Amino acid sequence: MTTKHIIFVPGKNPKAEPAQHSELLWRTLVEGVRRADSAVADILQASYAQFHLIGWNYIYYHVYKDITSDIPWIDALINKHGPTEQDIRDAHSWKLWMDRLMLLLADHIPLLIRLLPEKARSTAQEINRYFNNTDGVADEVRALLKQTLVPMLEQQEEVLLIGHSLGSVIAYDTLWELSRQNGIKGKVDFLTLGSPLGMHYIQRRLLGMNNHGNETYPDRIRRWINLSAEGDVAALNRNLNESFHAMLELGLVKSIEDHSHGIYNFFRSDAGLNCHRSYGYMVNPAVGSIIADWWKR
What we know:
Blueprint: E1 4-9, H1 18-36, H2 38-45, E2 51-53, H3 57-61, H4 71-78, H5 85-91, H6 94-108, H7 118-131, H8 137-154, E3 158-164, H9 166-179, E4 188-193, H10 200-203, E5 221-227, H11 240-243, H12 245-249, E6 255-259, E7 267-269, E8 272-274, H13 278-282, H14 285-296
Parallel strand pairs: 1-2, 1-3, 3-4, 4-5, 5-6
Antiparallel strand pairs: 7-8
């Protein structure tokens, strides 16, 4: 019987040490699945060995994050079964609407990036380190994912590759590289959460985007499901089917589905609502349903 594996590629910023980070992600993932399908959650509970965290963040930042202060908020998230009225209001706040508008303008006119708030400019600089492959860091990050993924592909095992935020970009680029390497066979199912892959700024710099036809895109994705929460400005363009429709036309992927309306990431801390946090995505029953359906298939 084919073994199923779930690989998670996190987004940017320093993270906790991999063992702790993996346990917290798994805890929220299982809870999200439980909200969608309790029978699958019971099976998953005993399958932690089949969950693989790609802890690339230490390579990038050379520091681990102390998340002691986050744990009570993660506990609260797990005991919270949906967005509150305040969460919904905050996800549609005027401030987030303005942030989104400014990012849309900068995405179409890159010269405007220097006029963005300091946090957004800092994010652009962090991402540039990846795209410029500064000191070979992008190669090293993708190599880390390949170490886990390639043996699974070679053994024709079932893989659900989850990429959150910048992690979805790293996963996409890695799949493109594997598509160009002779002898690597097999496909993954790809789940992107809060992904910036719809941004022109990102798309112009993806591996393969200067090529033509099939060589432009990866051919290692069986099905691609993209999910973005209301108020998540990192997922600027939520319609990846539109952005990557050529992959469907070329027969490189069976389907690209977008789930982006009425989904709320209700992770909240003393800093307020965070529509982008990975824990908030993982505990959401919309994500849980996708994972449960994949596990049962």
